[in-house]
Design a protein that fits this description.
Protein-Tyrosine Phosphatase, Chain A, 3 domains, 6-stranded mixed beta sheet, globular
């Protein structure tokens, strides 16, 4: 529900992408805005420049608690931990705490497809964007944002009731949300961001908010073959739709695979959507992503032929299993978006060629043992880099493989790892950057890490 913001004193914590977008939205709707960030003005030069036309009070380098004395609403950017003193103090004072995604859901007039999950949410969101754009009706606009691309809060007033919004939502965004989208999708839930949430239960609880506030007229789309996703089925308030590789029992609604084809059963009607050969992306995990998109498309009643066409033509997501270069008989792949061991595991499973794996980045306190067992079966060479290198190396030594089938090299930086991979790789090999850790030890985000990796590969 929209509220009059002209009387509100709003404190935005965090001046990254979401904070900047929300500051502009608040100012344009008459609010008095303060932004606080622990970084310096030099660090935030780009953000400050983007908002220089607005009357905003900046408090940088710290989060003084007295800012709350003149605050009606606290808005938290996604990367800001909820346990910092100023947020704890705001809760104690019963100050309204929210974020850009919550406000967007409260203001927008159109239906929303919300997509979350530990892995696959970006690919599923991007594929749904392409499907919806092909299948949209004349005059209908498709808006895509949230955790992917740009926050849509600054465009919320332009979105009409007959448009369609597709939002990728992270656990950081969902953690404090008290409103759910019309169609909620959970691709899977595996251990992730435990450095932020502490426990898998707390992480799962954050993800479950995408379902929690739905009503009987809404739809929940869950992965019936993933324990984390399907384990939330009892929290579904609307209609349950599922997706998975195995066929459904009669009268269930969902997508499945049979005879090397993807099918959809909805309201007791079974429809052939496409063949597995139509899928341009490698790996079983990408079949699940397509199955999720097919289920969403059925709920939206989108043309099957348009869905098939979009799947066939889907180019994939930047920095997700992206072929960078075939150089001297070696294929170099950028999977920088793989910021958890589970994501790297899915990438490694997608290849049959000998693999030189670049593993590292910043550790998220997630277990590496499951991935490393697969690495021992499928990978020829592992090159460790970054903050997580020592942690992973310790895991490898503790696992005491009998025998260890891969060679191991340790580098300080990703650029050093690229040089080492060039030395090791032979014709017919795949060099795969699929770090399993975040980029924050060396880069601003996984996109910058992927772009730098590509530039160094092109320089070979």
């Amino acid at each position: 529900m929209k509220k009059d913001l002209s009387t509100q004193h709003v404190l935005i914590i965090g001046a990254a992408r979401q904070g900047v977008a929300l500051a502009r939205f608040m100012c344009e709707h008459g609010a008095q805005v303060m932004i606080t960030d622990g970084r310096t003005a030099k660090d935030l030069e780009a953000s400050i420049d983007q908002l220089k036309d607005l009357s905003i009070r900046w408090v940088l380098g710290a989060h003084p608690l007295d800012l709350l004395d003149e605050t009606d609403m606290v808005c938290i950017s996604g990367g800001v931990p909820l346990d910092i003193p100023i947020i704890k103090a705001a809760k104690e004072r019963n100050i309204h705490i929210t974020n850009d995604s919550q406000i967007f859901l409260e203001w927008v007039k159109s239906p929303i497809v919300g997509i979350t999950g530990s892995a696959g949410k970006t690919t599923t969101t991007a594929l749904m964007r392409d499907i919806a754009n092909k299948a949209s009706t004349p005059g209908q606009n498709v808006w895509v944002g949230g955790n992917i691309g740009n926050p849509l809060i600054t465009q919320v007033d332009e979105i009409e009731k007959d448009d369609l919004v597709i939002l990728e939502l992270s656990s950081f965004q969902l953690e404090i949300m008290t409103k759910s989208p019309h169609i909620a999708v959970i691709t899977n839930i595996t251990p992730n961001h435990l450095d932020r949430h502490g426990t898998l239960a707390a992480y799962t609880s954050a993800k479950a908010n995408i379902l929690k506030y739905q009503t009987a007229g809404d739809f929940a789309i869950l992965n019936r073959e993933d324990q984390g996703s399907f384990g939330l089925k009892d929290q579904v308030n609307g209609q349950l739709i599922t997706f998975g590789l195995n066929p459904l029992s009669q009268k269930e609604n969902g997508s499945f695979v049979k005879n090397e084809k993807i099918w959809m059963m909805y309201n007791e009607v079974v429809t052939e959507v496409c063949t597995l050969e139509d899928l341009p992306l490698r790996g079983k995990h990408n079949i699940y992503n397509v199955l999720a998109a097919v289920a969403i498309s059925a709920v939206l009643d989108l043309s099957t032929s348009k869905v098939q066409q979009a799947i066939k033509e889907f180019p994939g997501v930047a920095h997700r299993m992206q072929l960078v270069r075939n150089w001297n008989g070696v294929k170099w792949f950028d999977d920088s978006i793989a910021t958890a061991p589970e994501r790297t595991l899915a990438a490694v499973e997608a290849f049959d060629e000998p693999i030189v794996l670049l593993l590292g980045g910043k550790d998220k306190n997630l277990p590496w043992d499951k991935l490393l067992h697969l690495v021992n079966d499928k990978v020829d060479h592992v090159i460790l880099f970054g903050h997580a290198a020592t942690v992973i190396e310790q895991y490898i030594h503790q696992m005491d493989f009998h025998p260890r089938k891969f060679t191991l090299t340790k580098c300080e930086h990703l650029q050093d790892a690229v040089v080492e991979a060039k030395r090791i790789a032979e014709p017919g090999d795949v060099v795969l950057l699929s770090p399993g850790g975040t980029s924050y030890d060396e880069f601003t985000d996984f996109e910058e890490r992927g772009e730098m990796f590509k530039s160094w590969v092109y320089q070979l």
